[in-house]
């Protein structure tokens, strides 16, 4: 009996370690996204998103074949309601990709990091609004702190940090809808990419006919980096899906701060973006909100 228990605990510990490795790999990949997209910033954001869609689909088709999940994909394609919902998530994830690439191309990685810092709190708010999840006092205070940070930034600079808000809202709504739909991550991502494929391909063909496309016209380095966007997009999503099967939500909740922290550090060190006193105060409010939210989530799960 004791040996069986020890074996079970060992298996659980091994699964947890594997999950942490997968989770760290996923969030580290996403954390280095600004470096990759900075290297292809000569490509206009809409063109880059179109390439990302085309090459992602090519890579996903290979993965579907390797994992043998074509039947599940075809089944989803035969369900009109599921397709309608996935069309909405397709628009949301495409918007998120486009805004993120735009932010990097115009030197606003700091704003993108802000968006992903407030994303967990946006998820809490969306759960309250759409899933009728009850919010406790620490969660309300966390939301108030984050709102104060964003509002302070908007007042000081005279404009709303729309990049941050759009990134947080688009990804938050995407996660909310995908949670309700219950479609396997690889299948869902493939169907979403497939729905975007006609628009992306049409746009790229139009660029090619006009002679304004970047691919195959600006040197071998770009000709290699652009197709890599498919692998860069799909791999962290698959790693994240694998981590999600092995880790508790609390662990994933803490790991998710790796990506915006890396974006933040890259923005103020490698990319030389200006981090002002106003930024500091705004981020401190948001970090305080995240700290309170994380502490409350950890205590609740332990209880």
From TrEMBL:
Xref: Pfam families:
EamA
Q: Write down the species.
A: Geomonas paludis
Is Membrane among this UniProt entry's keywords?
Answer: yes
Family per record: Belongs to the EamA transporter family.
Annotated TM spans: 20-37, 49-70, 82-104, 110-131, 138-155, 161-177, 186-204, 224-242, 254-272, 278-298
Location of this chain's protein in the cell: Cell membrane
What InterPro entries does this protein's entry cite? EamA_dom (IPR000620), EmrE-like (IPR037185), RarD (IPR004626)
Checking PANTHER family in the record gives: ACYL-MALONYL CONDENSING ENZYME-RELATED, SOLUTE CARRIER FAMILY 35 MEMBER G2-RELATED
Q: What membrane topology is annotated for this entry?
A: Multi-pass membrane protein
Recite the UniProt keywords alphabetically: Cell membrane, Membrane, Transmembrane, Transmembrane helix, Transport
Q: What is the lineage of its organism?
A: Bacteria, Pseudomonadati, Thermodesulfobacteriota, Desulfuromonadia, Geobacterales
Query: What GO CC terms are in its UniProt record?
Result: plasma membrane
Q: What is this protein called?
A: Chloramphenicol resistance permease RarD
**Residue ranges of domain EamA in the record:** 19-153
